[in-house]
Amino acid sequence: MGNSSSKITFFQWLRPLIESGQKTITIRDESESHYEPGSIVSVHTLETDEKFCDIEILSVEALRFEDINDTHARQELLSLSELKALLKDIYPGEELLYVISYRLVEEPR
Ligand SMILES: CC(=O)Nc1ccn([C@@H]2O[C@H](CO)[C@@H](O)[C@H]2O)c(=O)n1
């Protein structure tokens, strides 16, 4: 790879949830719907661009905002109202989003 699809950024406050393997999806807009299932993606903080883990992309599926439900919220470790408020804030007026499922790639030690 070595192109833009090998990196993803998350808000720093989500880092503990991601590196512990608890948070297993992220919901993004079309500009981030290009990740390929099976590829390994380097995870960085949005604020400082610090790399903190790798994830393997499992799937990328279109998701209408109105179809976001409790299962998505559970996979995000957020309440449904928190998740919807967050997504409205990040992607105002966007009705079509993409749910990216991933798993944490454990570091050998
Ligand atoms: C450019 C950039 O980094 N954008 C985003 C967009 C979303 N998110 C998080 O993904 C989940 C949305 O399903 C929620 O947990 C959000 O807080 C994020 O961390 N960073």
From TrEMBL:
Enzyme Commission (EC) number: 3.5.1.135
Pfam family membership, one: ASCH
UniProt keywords, alphabetically: Hydrolase
MF-aspect GO terms: hydrolase activity, acting on carbon-nitrogen (but not peptide) bonds, in linear amidines
NCBIfam families found in the cross-reference section: PRK04980.1
Function: Catalyzes the hydrolysis of N(4)-acetylcytidine (ac4C).
Residue ranges of domain ASCH in the record: 8-106
Protein name: N(4)-acetylcytidine amidohydrolase
Stored SMART domains: ASCH (SM01022)
